[in-house]
Amino acid sequence: MKVFLKDVLPVDLLLKHIEDGVIRKQVHPDYPDQLYILNYSEQAQFGRIWDAATNVCRGLICAVTPDGDVVIARGFNKFHNYNTEYLPETMDANLPNITPLATQKLDGSMGLPYYWDGKWWVATRGSFASDQAKWATEWLRHNYPLFSDGVFSTPVCEVIYKENRIVVDYDFEGLVLLGFVDLATGYELGRLFCEDWAFAKKFPIVKKFEKTLAECAAENNLNEEGYVLTYDKGRDVAPLKIKVKFADYVRLHRILTGLNPKAIWEMLEVGQNEAIDTIIADPTMPAPFIAWFSGWVEQFRARYREMERKAMYVFDRRPKNDLGDLGPALYRKSVALYFQKTPELCSILFAMLDKKDYGSIIWGKIKPRADATFKKDGE
């Protein structure tokens, strides 16, 4: 039975969001006229635009058919952190008075297996061709050549491998089953079904815990992200899900996905050397991040030293007025004419001449653009 896109979300709202950049539509590189994937954009995140379209477009894969566009795979509906103030349903007082399913929150990329043209593929939340999607597709085909689900639902997985590390350092690589999502409704099949399927396929499945919300929220385990709590709202309805993240993970994640060269430059520009040293000495930071961070720090410091050295070289060779033959105005004019031979250093040289702090001027001259962060957490 086909699941039509028009029956899953309001198409008029979807089209408006695509036009406004709130939802992105990406076609399949090998089947551009047949397959596309829908995913909410940064604009939706920053603008907190969560509605009947954006909540569903979290890796919604559709096929174009003569009868209309049909859904062939979908991920979990968008879900948020515990106690997100602008979302009342996530607040402690409003959560259902039932015991949720508590599972491990894995720190990788969501993978969506889908079957097309006689082969299994894996997409990530917003891409058919991301590095993570390519890696997961190869891993699935190599390790599970007869992979199948046999139901009208998507086996949502987490993609974990070394090159895709965000914060948590896992001792394995592969796809881990998170759950099955019904194509038509977003309903998630029960844990027992998932366990039976994973056992039959010998497929890794996410860990389950017998813990209350309070117990999950009280923990702060190192090298772990946290928990996902799922509250069943009944058949044919997407459940309520919330993320409970550990404080130490949140801190590290903010650094790893928030620091870009411009932010590092800002730390140096205002003299936050102690904070920089603390980050470099933090044993919980991934070694590749430390190398990346340290490299930018040293690069900025080296550029600062080089510009300062050039300015001091020019400044030390400025015209002298030791005998006082020239009055202050004429002397300054002669020095100004000399400084103007190196226009890129003029403002620094005049600050030196006037015995003013020139550090901020040098930092301003080597300010970078806001380049990509060490890690992009989105795929």
Please, could you describe this protein's structure?
By secondary structure, this protein is an alpha+beta fold. The protein folds into two domains: 5-251, 2-Layer Sandwich (D-amino Acid Aminotransferase, Chain A, domain 1), CATH 3.30.470; 259-365, no CATH class. The protein is 35% helix and 19% strand. It has helices at residues 11-20, 42-47, 131-143, 191-201, 213-218, 247-258, 261-269, 273-281, 287-316, 328-339, 346-353, 359-365; strands at residues 23-27, 35-40, 58-63, 70-73, 80-81, 101-105, 109-116, 119-124, 153-160, 174-182, 208-209, 226-231, 240-245. It has a five-stranded mixed β-sheet with strand order 5-13-12-6-11. Strands 1-2-3-4 form a four-stranded antiparallel β-sheet. The protein has a four-stranded antiparallel β-sheet with strand order 8-7-9-10. Strand 1 and strand 2 (35-40) form a beta hairpin. Helix 7 crosses helix 9 (287-316) and helix 9 crosses helix 11 (346-353). The longest helix has 30 residues, at 287-316.
